[in-house]
Amino acid sequence: MGEAIGQVLSFGVGVALSPMPIIAVVLMLATPRGARNGPAFLLGWVAGLGIVGTIILLVSSGASASDDGAPATWTSILKLVLGLALLALAVKQWRGRPHGDDAATLPKWMATIDAFTPGRSVAMGFALSAINPKNLILTAGAAAAIASTGATTGDQAVALAVFIVVGTLGPGAPVAIFFLMGERAHAILDGLKAWLAKENTVIMAVLCLIIGAKLIGDAISGLAA
User: Nearest Cα to 25, choosing from 150, 137, 110?
Assistant: First the structure.
């Protein structure tokens, strides 16, 4: 179990440090339905990570991701492909960063958050965790890494649960602040939103670069073994 958990921690951190979902949940918490929409967003977020992770884990395990406890060759190839995809995403994010005093551009759908219902908040949380390219790649990498350890089904489930918990810390933090900090929460969350909006592309580029390099390194080590 320890090896499987160790494999997913960096992936979970990469998912947790996703600026746009954090900004989205901060904006939701500032609306009249914030007390319901924030937790609803987290519900969709957890469901997205869980469903995608479980599907990929089942497929990887069924395709013999582990050969006598060692990663199968195809898992190393998958890591290489995912790593290269993250590097390409890092380049894209870096090129799209604001320059000088340029204001950060947020997705147009964020302007409609005031009208979100709890149901739509669940759907948005699911979309940002399960469909967002960066998080989809990281979840796939985490599930494939778990399967490649050859751990038992129970240990794999625990490792996936750890990945989901770690990956939820980012968007979960504003919700915790909202309910625990009272009136002080608004100033804290406003500052967090402004900083993340400004540094979003840089944060994303660095995360994708680091985790992409790790995946490629793991892939090269696996193929050379």
Answer: 110
